[in-house]
Amino acid sequence: MFTSRQGPSSPPPFLLSLSEALGSDAKDLRRAAGLSLRDVGRYCGVSHSAVSAWEEGRYAPRGLHLVAYVQLLGVLARGHR
Predict the structure, then answer these.
(1) Mind listing the pLDDT tens digit for each residue in 42-52?
(2) 69 to each of 17, 43, 73, how far by Cα in Å?
(3) Measured between alpha carbons, how far apart are the two ends of the chain, in Å?
C-alpha cells in the first residue's frame, strides 16, 4: 500500500504529475471532439467536477477511472490527427 506524508487520500506523486501533464492537452482534445465535461464524466463514471479537477491538475484519476480516461484520450488523440 502506498503511504506518504501527504496523507492516505492524496494520490501518489507520479499520478499527480501525470494529471498535470495531461491536463491542458486533455482539455484541448475534449474540446476539439466537442465533448463536455459531463460527457467525459459519464464515460469515466465520475462527475463533471472530477473531470474538471483532472484537467486542472488538482486531482488525478485512479483505478478504473484512470483506465477509462486514458482509453478515451487515446481515442480522441487518434481521431484528432
Answers:
(1) 999 999 999 99
(2) 15, 8, 6
(3) 39
How many domains are there within the chain?
Answer: 1
Task: Report pLDDT digits (tens) over 59-69.
Answer: 889 999 999 99
16 within domain boundaries: no
The answer to whether position 67 is within a domain reads yes
Residue 2: inside a domain, yes or no?
no
Looking at the domain assignment, is residue 47 inside a domain? yes
Residue type, 57: G
Q: Which three cell numbers stand for residue 60?
A: 488525478
Q: Alpha-carbon distance 68 to 63, whole Å?
A: 9
Domain ranges, residue 39: 22-80
Query: Has this prediction a pTM greater than 0.70?
Result: yes
